[in-house]
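A quick aside before the break. I want you to see a complete sequence-to-structure record at least once, exactly as it would be stored in a machine-readable document. Don't worry about memorizing anything.
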Amino acid sequence: MKIVWRDEEGVSPVIAVILMVAITVVLAAVLYVMVSGMLGSTNTTPTVSMNWIEDENNVGNYTGNIVRISGTKVLRVEDVTVTVNHDGNTQSTSLDILKGAPKLTIGTDFSLDYIDLNDDQKLGAEDNFVVVGGDDGDIIRLVYIPTGGQMGMAILK
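That is the input. The structure line, written in tokens, reads:
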């Protein structure tokens, strides 16, 4: 027995072109969504948690240890500004400048220093801040330069 097909017609060329264009547009949209999801957003401000400990032998001297950084995998020192309020005076400097320069000072009695223990140009859990001459109520803020948002704040006690 032999089956004979009759009326063998394909899709018209116009319909074929429309289908190919539609498939291409859908694939491009899916690829765009996948890639944009991987890139992430640079409009978010990371969060930095720190633990400040006063030196029992030297009142007014504090060490700030970074406990956790969330919201980013890498936090470069050039993306961070440190702002200090001491006795009503405020000073700010970029963390990369503070790393390579003298300490941030206010008056003659207050100084803040940043120590990048790994010397990797990134803010991380191994890094410390050291305050000499701090008072109760001094405020130390870390600001993320790309967004201008505050990443963390400490009030010395």
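Two observations worth writing down. The beta strands are 47-54, 62-70, 80-86, 89-94, 104-106, 110-115, 128-132, 139-144, 149-155. DSSP finds two helices and nine strands in the chain. We'll return to this after the break.
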